[in-house]
Amino acid sequence: MAQIQPRTPGGKAVRYGIPVAVVGIAAATVGLVPALASSGNPDLPEISAQKLVEKMAASDTEHMSGTVKVSADLGLPGMPGMDAGSGKQGGGLFGGGPHGDGPGGDGKGGGKGSTAQPQEKLMELASGEHTLRVATDGPDRQRVSVVEEAAEYSWIHNGNEAWAYDSGSDSALHVVAPEDAVSKDGGHGGKLHKGLGNATPQEAAREVLKATEDTASVSVDGTAQVAGRDAYQLVVKPKGAPHSTVDSVRIAVDAENGTPLKFTLSPKGGGKPVVEAVYTKVDFGKPSAGTFDFKPPKGTDVTEQKLDGKALREHHGKSGHHGTSEKGGKPGKDVRPELSGLNTIGKGWGAVAELKAPDGALGGLPGMGGGEPEGGSKSSQAEEMLDSFTEKAEGDFGQGRVFKTRLVNALMTEDGTVYVGAVSKEGLIKAAEAAGR
Amino acid sequence: MSRAELAGQDGRFAAGADGTNPGGAGAAAGGRPSARRVWPLFRSEVLMTFRRWRTLALLGVLAAVPVLVGIAVRIETGGADDGGGGGGGPAFISQITNNGLFLVFTSLAVTLPFFLPMTVGVVAGDSVAGEAGAGTLRYLLVAPAGRTRLLLVKFAGTMVFCLAATLVVAVFALGTGVLLFPVGEVTLLSGTTVPFSDGLLRALAIAVAVALSLTGLAALGLFVSTLTNSGIAAMATTVGLLLTVQIVDTVPQLHAVHPYLFTHYWLSFADLLRAPVYWEELLRNAGVQALYAAVFGSAAWARFTTRDITA
Questions:
Q1: Whole-model pTM?
Q2: pLDDT score of B69
Q3: Where is the chain membrane-spanning (chain B) (predicted)?
Q4: Residue of A4, A115, A165 with shortest CB distance to B191
């Protein structure tokens, strides 16, 4: 067969070198650019921790917009049917979310009907990586959007009303606060926006500072660049709480206006941070007014919710900015009646919440020892399964089971009491023994 | 038979295609490619592609998808009923009943994972190998265009097909959407409402973004196509690689390599429907496509300019 040969027979290897070189350059770029970009620590004047905290507290950034990357790695086992449990941790971390303290799982109950319920989104945020887009224009207008694949969940607060719009399911939630309530404490407006705002570095930083006033050592640890802005690094370490699972909380504070730009919570066990919320892009200009307008499209499922009296309290409970019992150590004032037995042991970082679960709530957990109606059906298989994600614990309270995550641990004793806290297993056992006395 | 003989024999072929340099042999190696020389070749390449029954059949399949989706949604919702069907199904499908324009986005989201790239794989895979298989490649090579330019023309022709295929889906979806559903103001994913004209512009931008998303695959197909003399083998390999990459992209354990797969950011076109537009993934997609185009484009060039053409 006749051949047509190339006109330039030589240099074959050279020519193949080009694609190889392109791959090499690309790989080098991917590997080097992030390293180079993050190495530049800006030179900033020294500042004391006290001053920095004050600066952060005094910062009232009126207008801003930006993109936030939130990643959470709580180390939850991927167990089906454990959704209620993950809700619990999510609530604790963001100071919001459904307080799924009752193992019965409250998160699901609240979420039927419209899928635009903010608490369900918060649950999603509690695991994995998410991108949020936020915009703020004064205390009355905020917007938080969760960027999803080919969909978006937006929480838009404007004046005395708030909209949640889920483009994926084309459903919306409309919450209206009565006029007088807004004027009272400037406040329900503020409450309206908390639905998802808790996931931003600002709110997370505020929660931590509030919770830890004098139980932590606060120091300034160098500087960093976040979203192209110079920032101081504030490190908060728990003090006098040997059993706390929290190693440290790092907050990058904008050097100019004191806005927290990055929030990192590292566990004692080391490894990846449990929670990290960081601005990847930030702009302190005024967002365009249209950003906060929302008109539900034709045909969208709209759920109306009025915020007055009883309904308000309900929402209040749902969006969950009552004291976070695990972290803040504040006893939850508005805990639902069926969990009447909640009280807090210890305070600050070592705080443990004790809850008496309603009877039967633990029915789904065989092998919890006696006193259980379904106790007879406990099989060795169920026991094995239980062993795979809990640990046995013993103490004055008898036998119990410890459910572990990287941050929050829970101890269930045989009488159905649950101890939850961001403390180690030993801490939980101690707390349970202290409570038994 | 030597190259020179062939060139002499087919001088008239070369003259027919170009008219300037019937000698052929040294043309490409020496002279700079000028637009005047490349253009007729490009035009004949595009005309060749779109005159083929196979191409028309592929476009027909692509045109049928939005029509079928539209009719199915129309029948399922029974006209005036509310369309709160929940979050299942492909992206945007729940909004179609309220605004026909969303059929464009749904159709692109439905065809992008498989139908569109499959047609591109067929066209790209066949581009060089098909000519070799049919025995026409040698005639093209003795024409004064030269190998590099021929390859560029093939790649450009494939890209034209990418854009045409995307536009066929978009236009048929728009037509079906307007006929079957109400149209009007568009509510973006972020909840912002924009006028219909703005929505149309965004739809056009999305079609272009989708076409650009196929660049990487087109380059990959072209490279595969230079490796073999069998058009069928090149097509099958390209589509097979596409499927493999799509599967790898769904395996969570392999998440470390996902950002480097050419299919990973394909659905980022939806970010054009946010307000403000979320550019990060769109730009990453463009970067990944450019990288694939550079790597496999240059690999195809290295292979094609140094290989012996035996058919």
A1: 0.73
A2: 92
A3: 56-75, 101-129, 150-183, 203-224
A4: A165
Q: For residue A424, give both structure tokens.
A: 């180690």
Within an 8 Å CB–CB cutoff, is residue B266 touching chain A?
no
Nearest to B263 by CA among B251, B272, B275: B251
Domain boundaries, chain B: 3-14+32-306
CB contacts under 8 A, B 17-76 vs A, are 25-26, 28-29
Judged by CB atoms within 8 Å, which residues 92-121 of A form the interface with B? Answer: 115
Token digits for A340? Answer: 């009447």
CB atoms A4 and B184 under 8 Å: no
**Every domain of chain A and the residues it spans:** 49-319, 337-436
What chain B residue is nearest to A12 in terms of C-alpha separation?
Answer: B306
Q: Kindly indicate the confidence band of residue B212, based on its pLDDT and cuts at 50, 70 and 90.
A: very high
Q: Are A153 and A124 within 8 A, CB to CB?
A: no
Higher local confidence (pLDDT), A105 or A50: A50
Q: How far is CA A196 from CA A145, A376, B35, B205, B211, in A?
A: 8, 44, 56, 31, 36
Chain pair A-B, CB pairs under 8 angstroms: 145
Rounded mean pLDDT, A403-428: 82
CB contact under 8 A, B6 and A6: no
Residue predicted with more confidence, A313 or A413: A413
Q: What is the mean pLDDT of residues A339-362?
A: 66
Q: Is B309's Cβ below 8 Å from some Cβ in A?
A: yes
Most A CBs within 10 Å: which of B3, B94, B188, as the mutation test of the A interface?
B94
**pLDDT tens for each residue of A78-117:** 444 333 333 333 333 333 333 333 333 333 333 334 456 7
- Residue B82 in this model has a pLDDT that exceeds 80: no
By CB neighbour count within 10 A (0-12 exposed, 13-18 middle, 19+ buried), where does A60 fall?
Answer: exposed
- Residue in chain A lying closest to B267 (CA): A150
Find the CB nearest B305 among A6, A154, A167. A6
The whole-angstrom separation of Cα B262 and Cα B120 is 14
* H or E, element range at B190: none
Beta bridge partners of A136: A64, A142
Q: Which CATH code is given to the segment(s) A49-319?
A: 2.50.20.10
Phi-psi category of residue A433: left, alpha or beta, with phi > 0 → left and psi -120 to 50 → alpha: alpha
